[in-house]
Amino acid sequence: MRVLLVLDHPYTLASAENVPHRRSFTAAVAAAAVRGATAAGHEVDVIDLAADGFSPVMTREDLVAWRQGAVVDPLVDNYQRRLLAADHLVFAFPVWWEAMPAATKGFLDRVLTKGVVFAERPGARGNPFHNLMPRLGGVTVLSVMTTPDKAYRWWYRDPLTKILFKGTFGKIGVGNLRWINFDRVAGRTPEQRRRLLDDTERRFATLAPDRRGPLARGKRRAPGAPLTRSGT
Fold first, then answer.
1. 231, 182 contact by CB (below 8 A)
2. Number of structural domains, the chain?
3. 77: domain CATH number?
4. Within the chain, what is the greatest distance between any pair of CA atoms?
5. Among 152, 50, 70, which Cα is nearest to 111's?
6. For residues 91, 217, 131 and 99, what is the CA-based torsion angle, rounded to 10 degrees?
7. pLDDT tens for residues 25-63?
8. Among positive and negative, which fits the CA dihedral 213, 109, 81, 1?
9. CA 62 – CA 43 distance, rounded (Å)
10. Is position 226 within any domain?
């Protein structure tokens, strides 16, 4: 199985090691996921948005091309080709102001081009979107936050998965949407963090191929639902 992991952190994947002032727990989580998936025999492709210098801004030229089912940025074209080749997509990012950082949102805006990764069906009853990523069987989100998990779900009403699952991939028609949340990370001890990383590596070491195709009635999980939990 081909796993595409999209990391969004200014320190890049190079900050996965526990070096004071040059470390990121988000990067460490991503690296643990890569280790686990690789150990399971999966092919892992990593998109490091900060290392690539990816801009989240949709320019006028981008939007004109987007409306025509095309792209003008070679990096966006590269990302689309890698996304279309993926069987499972993983996002890893810190949560800032209760949502994903700008680069992840820009990935959604600029890479998920109409006519390339999804199609619109004018006049369709219900959901007018059709998935053009036949290989993509599931999406996992690895989020890192200081907000307590319960407060995020019940006070802030879980904006993260509403955007990524219900408002994006669920709308397109991708199933098997999983959310693994690492909350209150600032207050975790080094040992607690190590256990979370070990748990992440084990999860991805047992990652199995997703069920592909349209979601069967009774088999669909509600987009945005707390599918998996970690760190709470």
1. yes
2. 1
3. 3.40.50.360
4. 56
5. 70
6. -30
7. 999 999 999 999 999 999 999 999 999 999 999 999 999
8. negative
9. 31
10. no
